[in-house]
Input
Amino acid sequence: MDFQHIIEAVGKLVDFAGVAVMVIGAVVSIPMALRGYQPRRLPADAERMSVYRAYRQLLGRSILLGLELLVAADIIRTVAVAPTYESVGVLALIVLIRTFLSFSLELEITGHWPWQKEPSQSRSGPEGGSVNRDSTVPET
Output
């Protein structure tokens, strides 16, 4: 077995892993959502998510991970095996489409773009004044 066949086999294995992650994630997400899954970083004043919303969030996370594996498989197969301009162009288009899908899913799941900071839960201190988050020295 030569190098090209090994790389093709690895690419197919990573492709399979990507699809498996999405399918298993979709199946495992159903009982988790039905049992009342809630994200850990839910703001204190936020209401609980419905079963539908929890399932969508869990399914979205599974799809995101699966897409990342599929992109990795495409890169492995294209770059490791004598890339041509055509194969690199097809790879670029596939990565562009999957990246757009990943960003869209991230926005749907978290409510903000991947490059944006997460909104802080509270902007004010106990007395209603602002909290200095940059300082490591406690105020007296």
In short: DSSP finds three helices and no strands in the chain. The mean pLDDT is 78.
